[in-house]
Every structure is written in C-alpha cells, then in structure tokens.
TrEMBL record:
GO terms for molecular function: catalytic activity. It comes from the Eukaryota. It comes from Glomus cerebriforme. Belongs to the PPC synthetase family. Residues 172-283 form the DNA/pantothenate metabolism flavoprotein C-terminal domain. This is DNA/pantothenate metabolism flavo protein. The lineage of its organism: Eukaryota, Fungi, Fungi incertae sedis, Mucoromycota, Glomeromycotina. InterPro entries: CoaB-like_sf, DNA/pantothenate-metab_flavo_C. One of its GO terms (biological process) is coenzyme A biosynthetic process. Pfam families: DFP.
C-alpha cells in the first residue's frame, strides 16, 4: 500500500474566560492570510494521490501558540518539539500541517545534531559528509528523495492556535470525500485557552505596569465537529498528553467517549518516546519499547504507525462490507 501525507505544528490560566462553540470561534477569529494558497495545494495533493489510489494521512504535529498582544511580541506555547509527527511521517505513511521539526531533516536539526557537525571542509575547498556519518545520511537521503520525487509529502505550516484550527477545518473538509480511506493522525499540542483578538491589547504589554494577570477564553473542542461533520467516515486518531500517570487512561477514555472517534493514544510527558497506550472502545493495550530497542535507537513511531495502518485496513474493510 502506498500512502501520502500532510504534517502540521501553546498555556496559562489565571482567570475564568468565556466558553464559545466552534462556529462562533470561526466567525470571530481571522483565518491565516495563506489559507487560500494552502487550500489550493492541499486540493492538488489530495486529487493527485487519490487518483493514483494512494491513501492520504493528515498528520498534525508541534505546538500551537497563543498571542498575548495583537502586534505580537509575547505568546504562550503548548509543549511539543514536533518529534512525534515528524518521526511518524517517515514510517509507512507519509503527510502533514507543521512548525518545528520536519521529517527527514529532523535528524540534522536538533541543537545536539547540528548538520554542520556532520560535514567537513577539505583542503581543496570541497565540503564532504564525514565518512562515519555517510551510511545513515545516505539511507535518510534516499528515502527523502523518493518521497520528494513522488510528491508524497506536503508540508503546511501554522504558528498560532487560530492558524491551526482554520487549517484543520479546511484540510479535513477537502479530505471528506475520501471517506474511510482517509486517516487523521492528530498529534499537535493544541492550546485549550486563548485571548480573542478584540480582548487583546494592541501593543506590547509594558512591564513598567507591574505583574501580569491574564484571563483567557476556552478554545472550543474542535474534535466534536471534526468527528461529526468534517470527516465523519474517516479513521481518526488523536493524542492525549498528561503529566500525571494516574490521570492518563481515564482522561484519554473520556476524550474517546466524548468525541466518538476510533483511537486516543495516551502518552506521558516523561515517557512519551518509550511508551504509549492505545485507548479504543473495548481495549487499552500499552505499547512499549524494550531496553534493547531503546539502546538500539528504535523509535516508538516505528511500532505505532504499522499498528495504525493495520487498524485502518480493518476500518476500510468493515466500511466496505457495510456499503455492499
Ligand atoms: O512533539 P513531541 O514528540 O515533543 O511531543 C508529542 C506530543 C506529546 C505533543 C504528542 O504525542 C501528544 O500527546 N499530542 C497531543 C497533546 C495534547 O494532549 O494536546
């Protein structure tokens, strides 16, 4: 099976803000300026790969910022380095909405992995990859070039939570006709709180005025309209991040029950790279890397993605049975 994918990339509450519904949110906030251009790219991408009989996966990844001023100098960010989405996009499915780390180049962009440390300047002025790094870089480069040649990866950026939500709504609606063949892999860390533009100060907040007290409104729970209206037949996987191990499974199950999608993958901040829990309607298996796998730099996404592809296959088969 070949697939194609997209990939994408804020919190503080010190008061009680308003709660609005998703429609009001979209009516009272401005879409990103690049939305029409991004929609065009996504339509072309979806049409091309759909015609070629490839499955399409929307991967969202990275944090979402919440500006504190209309002329933004300061903002709050939700934690995410963007590793989950960027890494997942390199395994058997590839696609996205993004900021921060990107697939393939992520191996050479961390502060501990600066690409300049992998190359050397020769006496004749040529620049070469240091020989010990060639095998790994060659293998990543081959995969990257293949994906590029096939146009199997579309990168779309977002920064603020508003950018993210407008893009998410547009992309899922463009993918709606793919029905059960579309997968939504929602790993972005989406802020739960924001300050509406009309309640935000115009200019940089001045520290001369003393401490800062913020009142934020709640970002509406967009998973509800996504599951019910934007992508009602799609295979939808969301992630849930917690820091308290005693809350993880309960909070993940609450999300699954509330929104009615297929899987919530629960993970803890401290162990997210070694362990996740798949919460489905009738099970909650843990997926863990062994000590040996950790020592061999195996990435947990190399297990998550094939498992999801298998479950998506079953989802498609069941939908086709129901339709026949
Ligand atoms: O990008 P990263 O690898 O640093 O972190 C990934 C993650 C923990 C943000 C992701 O797996 C996740 O749980 N996303 C959902 C976050 C949330 O509950 O809003």
């Amino acid at each position: 099976m070949s697939t194609a994918s997209f990939f994408s990339k804020g919190l503080l509450d010190s008061g009680i803000g308003e709660v609005i519904n998703p429609d009001t949110y979209f009516q009272t906030n401005l879409p990103p300026r690049t939305l029409p251009e991004d929609e065009k790219k996504v339509k072309e991408f979806v049409n091309k790969h759909n015609k070629a009989g490839r499955r399409i996966v929307l991967i969202t990844s990275g944090g979402t910022t919440v500006p504190l001023e209309n002329n933004t100098v300061r903002f709050l960010d939700n934690f995410s380095a963007g590793t989950r989405g960027a890494t997942s996009a390199e395994y058997p499915f590839n696609s996205f909405l993004q900021f921060s780390l990107q697939p393939y180049s992520r191996h050479y962009t961390h502060s501990t992995n600066c690409f300049l440390d992998f190359i050397e300047l020769k006496n004749d002025g040529h620049i070469e990859v240091i020989s010990q790094y060639v095998p790994k870089m060659k293998s990543i480069l081959e995969k990257y070039q293949k994906v590029k040649q096939e146009g199997a990866l579309l990168l779309i950026s977002f920064v603020t939570v508003a950018d993210y939500l407008f893009l998410l709504r547009s992309v899922t609606q463009i993918m709606k006709d793919l029905n059960e063949h579309a997968m939504y892999y929602l790993a972005a860390a989406v802020s739960d709180f924001f300050i509406p533009s009309q309640k935000m100060v115009q200019h940089k907040i001045q520290s001369a005025d003393g401490g800062l007290t913020l009142t934020m409104d709640q970002v509406p729970k967009f998973l509800k309209p996504l599951v019910t209206n934007w992508a009602p037949k799609g295979f939808i996987v969301s992630f849930k991040l917690e820091t308290d191990p005693f809350l993880l499974v309960d909070k993940s199950r609450q999300a699954l029950t509330k929104y009615g999608h297929q899987i919530v993958i629960g993970n803890l901040l401290t162990t997210r790279k070694q362990e996740v829990t798949f919460i489905t309607k009738d099970s909650e298996p843990k997926m863990q890397l062994t000590e040996e796998e950790i020592n061999n730099n195996i990435e947990i996404e190399s297990k998550i993605v094939p498992e999801l592809v298998k479950r998506h296959d079953e989802w498609i088969k069941n939908a086709q049975k129901e339709n026949s």
